[in-house]
Amino acid sequence: MPPELLIRGGRVVDPASGTDATLDVLVRDGVIAATGPSLEARGARVIDAKGLVVTPGFVDLHAHLREPGFEQKGTIATETLAALRGGFTTVCAMPNTLPAPDSAPVVEALLERIARDARARVFPIGCVTRRREGKELAEIGELAASGCVALSDDGSPVADAGLMRRALELAGAAGLVLSEHSDDPVLNAGGVMNEGRVSERLGLKGQPVAAEVTAIARNIALCETSGARLHLAHVSTARSVELVAEAKSRGLPVTCEVTPSHLFLTEDAVFGAGDEPAYDTAAKINPPLRTEADRLALLRALDAGVIDAIATDHAPHAREDKLCEFDLAAPGLSCFETTLGTVMTLVTRGELDFAAAIAALTVNPARAFTLDARVPGLGTLRPGAPGDITIFDPAARWTVDVTRFVSKGRNSALDGTTLTGQVRYVVTGGALAFEMEAAYA
Amino acid sequence: MLELSELHQETRTEEAVAWHRKDLLDTDCLSPAEIELVMETAAAMDEVRSRPVGKVATLRGCTVVTLFYEQSTRTRASFEVAAKAMGADVVNMTASGSSVEKGESLIDTVRTLEAIGADVVVMRHGRSGAPYLAARNTSASIVNGGDGTHAHPTQALLDLYTMRRHVGDLAGKKVVIVGDILHSRVARSNIWTLMAQGAEVVLCGPATLLPRTLAATGERGSCTVTTNFDDAVEGADVVMALRMQKERQQGGLIASIRDYIRGYQLNSARLDRARPGALVMHPGPMNEGIEIAPEVAHGLASVIEEQVSNGVSVRMAVLYLLTAGRRAHAA
Asked: What is the spatial distance between Cα A263 and Cα A351, in angstroms, rounded to a whole number?
């Protein structure tokens, strides 16, 4: 067991208990021992958190670690280190790997690699269908038994509504939430960015809002039919969150997430800031960056609790995956290391509520995937909860430099952007796992 | 500093506008002065072409590569003739039978061409934005010879040159472009030049092939969108029909070619609604009997063949300005 750790004098924010006060946190035997004023612990290692914010370690419901199969983009070792650096102590790994975790042996092999290499807590997400092909169901009961915390075919939406209904029924019976990238592949065929002003200007094929909205409406209806838990991955449009709000108001077991990219950027990032279009592949993401009206609606929905979680959709890519024609570029951003900065920049601008943001990074995602049932107290600072803690400077201003990423993916649309808010220390399992190098301050 | 005097000795006395661009990627960024410079230079090139020899040595020592990832006959031939008329060495490359087929990236291809000594690379590519990627990664000048459904700047410039020769000042003139606007790089690049000239641009076609956001009122010109060709053509000064690709029917974007012809073929009945003497244009290649009736394509109002001829002069002008700019920069 690591030595005791005393985090002294920070602004402790624990949304689960409603705590937001200057307190000390004592970590002992790998778990939270106490939170309170003026705690004493002889021999404990002390972290001076004066001026810093102390929260439960962040929980990410949607990340791509790339291993096995795409180690040139990222590995469990590199990407979980990037997660820690971004304040994420728990990561749910999406199944778009090769092989994809669609059976127990693949999940077991993945868990072995995680046990060996992961620097953060990693939960695997299993496939809905075999090889994520949307044709035959994966063995959902076995996936649940082997340790998957959720099911998803990731970027391949389950197009067949009948199959989706059966998948939800079986997932519900197995106690797993189904996380769905809601998209109509026919409406979206060939689309590479939001359909609208910028796509028409650039001559790029658009992804219409209706492709996401119709799929969300369908999936909510199937959630109601099956009674099973549905999680809507990375909602991106104003209309999407209206549908979620309506579903929640009727008591349906629906949760959803938003990415920091969709909260911070719009379709204009594809054009770029200059007079001439940039066709910036760094801003290519699926679902696409939408309009300013959509972005503002997502922020309001997060404030209102309609959106449960901020999930990174961290998607590292190799250089050549992005250094090509826009149509051919891989979608996704490497964003573990910039998420807190984007979130706190939005808070600083007054666009996002601080308490809502911290809840969406901690207890709310833990509950959405019932991770707290697997690890009691996950996402909170209550006594007995895991000693997973993130300590950040809410006011530090820093400029994103992708060459300093520890992620293998340097595909950020924020390179050169000055952000507010930076992770200083991360504690996992009661031990200090990351301390920002002085040089990076 | 650019000097046209070697080409056009009688009229030019001073040259206030220099060409600073390394590349020509689209018309949207061209200032009115830059457009004027291209038009004036193209007129000088017309004069060169009218001489008995029809050639100058202005680009001797320059290497122009045509890099075509898509099939094209007229655009490539037009650039090749233009470059050779000024004494440039021309190398033609196609995607098939080259390193491109072996999986070489676009960036590596243009860097290789630069290393071989290409001064100008004329590029046609099926992906919108590809020439921008190329331009950012080479010091060679990139000329966009058509990228995906985005832009075709030299076509728009030759269209403008042709219109001005017949219509004169385009301010307040009605220019109707009919066809598959949504997927047309010709239409897009024309919108920017024509609006800059103060023209009243009307984009017309089936609802499935029309953009929803390009309608605009500019500082001078305007751009409107309509599905009613019969109304749109009323009083038009210029009517430009676009090629109707048969794949659009397979893609479900139009019900049938027959239905398209009914609503959008430029025929003599429709042309009668335009202003008397209105110009008929087409960027080619034509599907006669589909988007344009043969009697209109070859009628008195048609300047379609002249467009092709003017294309050589305009492309000479573009190649000249880019290489003169490069030389001025190197000096």
From this structure: 10
- How would you classify residue A406: left for phi > 0, otherwise alpha for psi between -120 and 50, otherwise beta? alpha
Q: In A265-303, which residue ranges form alpha helices assigned H by DSSP?
A: 268-271, 292-303
> Tokens for A413?
């649309």
Structure tokens at B266: 């430029």
The mean pLDDT value of chain A amounts to 97
Whether residue B147 contacts residue A203, with contact meaning beta carbons closer than 8 Å, is answered with yes
Residue of A313, A353, A388, A393 with catalytic role: A313
Is residue A60 part of the annotated active site? The answer reads no
**B315 and A CB contact within 8 Å:** no
Give the integer Cα–Cα distance in Å for B255 and A17: 61
- Are residues A324 and B29, on separate chains, in Cβ contact within 8 Å? no
Q: What ipTM score was computed for the predicted complex, to two decimals?
A: 0.92
- Asked if B152 reaches chain A (Cβ–Cβ under 8 Å), the answer is no
pTM over 0.90: yes
Domains of chain B: 32-151+309-330 (3.40.50.1370), 153-300 (3.40.50.1370)
Q: Which residues contact B21 (CB under 8 A, 6 or more apart)?
A: B34, B322, B325
**Is the CB of B132 less than 8 angstroms away from the CB of A324?**
no
Rg of chain B taking only CA atoms, in angstroms: 20
For the stretch A108-152, pLDDT in tens is: 999 999 999 999 999 999 999 999 999 999 999 999 999 999 999
**Strand partners of residue A124:** A93
Which domains are delineated in chain A?
5-53+387-440 (2.30.40.10), 57-374 (3.20.20.140)
